[in-house]
Amino acid sequence: MIETIRNIWSIEDLRKRILYTFGLIFVYRIGSFIILPGINPALLTLQNAQKGLLGLFDMFAGGSFSRASIFALGIMPYISASIAMQLLTIAVPSFAKLQKEGESGQKRINQYTRWLTVIVTAFQALAYVTYLRQQSGAAILPQFSPFFFAFSTIVVLTAGTLFVMWLGEKITDKGIGNGASIIIEIGILARLPHALVAEFNAKNTSGGGGLLIFLIEIAFLVLVVMGLVVLVQGTRKVPVNYAKRMVGTRQIGGVRQFLPLKVNAAGVMPIIFAQAIMFIPMTVVGFTNPESQTGGFIRALSDYTSFWYNLIYGFMVIIFTYFYTALIFNPTQIADEMKRNNGFIPGVKPGKPTAEFIGSIMDRITLPGAFFLAIVGILPGFAHALGVNTVFASFFGGTSLLIIVGVILDTLQQIESQLLMRHYDGLMKSGRIAGRAAQMTTT
């Protein structure tokens, strides 16, 4: 490990990229503690911002949402705009054509994404102003008129999100790893030290072998992380042969390669979609009679430790895994690309039979991946039901842990590529780190 770190530090370009990334992350963390103009932080009370859907948003923003900082909306509006543009490139032919135009088309898509980010951020900032007035109106300084406070807050929040988006793009261009993903990951990891200390204190003061229980929880967390690494890196390699052809005096092709099909091609999106829908009962609870049978059922769905919540939530994760995989994975396009490059799967005819063969394999490997992803999604509820505090329980699975594992693997894969490109040993003596970016490029 020491030799690997020395090799990383000896590469000037890699060293500059890592230091540049840490510098921009430091700027982001400083900005997350700068309070919005016109708010008295001593009177700010946004306790419910750490629960339910708002708690998920606050986790992605690194706690900026509950602190009412200038980065309160974080990078999530940009992520939402990027997802919307990704879906448009699949559903709308004009955007699909634009995506196939190469670098020029990608630049236009990026520009549309930025403009859409401004619109989404402005709407979310207006909603955030309303939320501040309802939950902590006493914290707003009286010398700020309602209109001026709303206008200044919307401008500052929009500028803050655009600045965070710019930081993410700079990390991607001049740093190491995917900038937007790293910013989200840093926001999630910022809560980990506090969660560990709180859980340690709770178990240590409870007596009766509390410290041993804490060590067991850490060991179980390590096992969950190892399982997630297998899920993120798991692939089914389909052999592909390429026919020999002559280009000038050179012979090209005639080699066997592999088409890596990911077990979890949908990533974290099924969990995010399922969580967004499962937060609806929490909103409906306030409008139902708690004594009625319907109200009791809805309240059961709003409790993420209940049986019905975990059953429906796990089922929705499985459904959304198949749905999102169908959106982003196009076996017909892969079969056409193979046919154009004189590639074929042994024993399968090119064209439609190849597409059907790839699609059938993807359906089979998606099923165990979807079930494992559903288990990962409901693990925080089980951890909380077994006595783990709410913040620390969120690291036992769900969105937070899946994002952390995926982003770290992507970043390590880029570092390993830089080492191997300069004839150094990789991060591992045996095997390779197969991040999501590498697998997508190979596909």
Could you explain how this protein is built, in words?
- It is built from 20 helices and five strands.
- The longest helix has 34 residues, at 103-136.
- The radius of gyration is 24 Å and the shape is globular.
- It has two domains: 1-190, Preprotein translocase SecY subunit, CATH 1.10.3370; 197-443, Preprotein translocase SecY subunit.
- A three-stranded antiparallel sheet has the order 4-1-5.
- It is 69% helix and 5% strand.
- α2 packs antiparallel against α8 (146-174), α7 packs antiparallel against α8 and α9 (179-189) packs across α19.
- It is mainly alpha-helical and 443 residues long.
- A hairpin with a 2-residue loop joins β2 and β3 (250-252).
- It is a multi-pass membrane protein.
- It holds the Pfam family SecY.
- The chain crosses the membrane at residues 18-39, 68-92, 112-132, 144-167, 179-198, 210-232, 266-287, 307-329, 365-386, 392-412.
- This is Protein translocase subunit SecY.
- Belongs to the SecY/SEC61-alpha family.
